[in-house]
Amino acid sequence: MELAMAFRSSSSPQNSRLGDFRRGSHTRPRPSSLHYKRKGINSMLLAGDGDHAGDRQGFTPSLTSFFFQFLQQPTVSHRALFLQLAAPAIFFLSFGACACVSGPGVPLRPAQTVALDSQIGAVEDGEPALLSNSVSEENKLAESEKEMELKAAFERWKSKAFALTVPLRIVSLRGSVPPSWFKDFIQVQGRKMKLQSEFRGKLEDIFSELLAATKRGSVDLKSAMAADVVTIGDSWLCLAISKGVIEPLGNVEEQDWFKELEEKWRTYLYRNNNGNLDSDGKIWAVPYRWGSIVIAYKTSKFAKLNLSPVQDWGDLWRPELAGKISMVDSPREVVGAVLKFMGASYNTQNIDVEVPGGRNLVLHNLMRLQRQVRLFDSVHYLKAFATGDVWVAVGWSSDVLPAAKRMSNVAVIVPKSGASLWADLWAIPAATKFNTNRIGGRVRSPSPLIHQWIEFCLQPARALPFLQEVIPGSSPSALKGIPAEDWSEDQSKGKPKLDTNLIAGVPPPEILSKCEFLEPLSEGTLLDYKWLVAGMQKPRQGQISRLIEYFSLIVQTLGLRSCGTQS
């Protein structure tokens, strides 16, 4: 029975192809029956199939073919011989098949072997091997449907519109920020940002709102204290820090905009908790605009009377200008003008030691200046200049330059010996200490866009409105000066021509090097200032007397209040 099955299996065309696959692709052609007759059985068994003697993959099919050929012979002796050799032949066939699997030939991978065995079993049983394939196809279809459902759900999620915005509320000094900045920043940030800009008429108004919230212990949502960022004047910075109405900026040293600031800015911005300059302190505010004190005079009046033009502080003491000068009522600017006239610094800390002649000579020159100035008033000094009541006006460039451009026959200069510098800065209100759930643009914390706004304002491209004189002042990057040869007349093309020594709102380099930011005063220097102002209070009649009283009041209250002893 086993012999018959072996013969049937060998004679099947399918098994013949299957056997070729299992053996490999290099099976040699079957030899003819005459070949076996000539060589004989013994030589065939010993030599194998030609050149492949000893190769089990080549030997097995040749022997099987020999049996088929041999059975077809009619000779009885051959059949008898076949019966004698049947058992050994089957043994050799089985042994050869096992050797093919375990021998050094090309091995089959386990997955291929299992699949092959299942195919063999299916073919022998006469049934197609489709069960495992159908199950696999069903699993693939199910997975494909799930993937399609997930993709469809993701597309529906992407198509939804989410109302997610990041607000930024800014309270600034009116006229200090170019309008294009707000438009450009909105364009850069996109629709996800909600920018709210508000303006105040004076720096004092912003500080008063911050201070009122601190004293009250609560925040009005319309107050400047509830804003994300506010404008602080440099003259108010010391007081704002000492009163705790603003908070320091964190990690500014890592910001690119801070690295680009001039060393003069960094020295001026580092402050301790009392608001005094301290190289080990913190950064409490960032400048976005600056300027200087300037002197404006009417060239027509000077030409008519054949007067020499104003060039420096000493010209304010000229007899022909007595009663023809208006000036801001800032004690630091008035006393500072006297100090510059005497060759000293605005930031002199010990007048008796650092100034020749000491306090007495400073007081003498201050009283002389008082006789020259018709009006000390930071609000109306330019009105008196515009109406012709005075010929000379001393004030901040942010006020004087726009007014001078509306007039004719007016020149504006920065004194040759230098002048004081002013700056508008961005600061963060100290509102996080209040017990409320709405502070600034976010809940209980400032907007995350604050640093982006500050960096945006300090980019070189933001200097264009200042160069085009849209807004008076200069970009912080211009503190190093703008050489005259680098200034193009095209920048001011179409603008009113103004007789000035300013270059794009910046003093010439040789004058800028002598200009100073106003630093906080020590307690001893404050006492000197109070003594000087008290010496001006003589029994007099009229407006000058009232202005001197107001001048003294400023010194005793906000204008020169100490921020703490300076180290």
From TrEMBL:
GO biological process terms held by the UniProt record: polyamine transport
Region feature (Disordered): 1-34
Pfam families, alphabetized: SBP_bac_6
Bias-annotated ranges (Polar residues): 8-17
Molecular function terms from GO: polyamine binding
Main location: periplasm
Keywords from the named record: Periplasm, Signal, Transport
Extent of Basic residues compositional bias: 24-34
Localization, UniProt: Periplasm
Protein name as annotated: Uncharacterized protein
Organism, scientific name: Aristolochia fimbriata
Lineage: Eukaryota, Viridiplantae, Streptophyta, Embryophyta, Tracheophyta
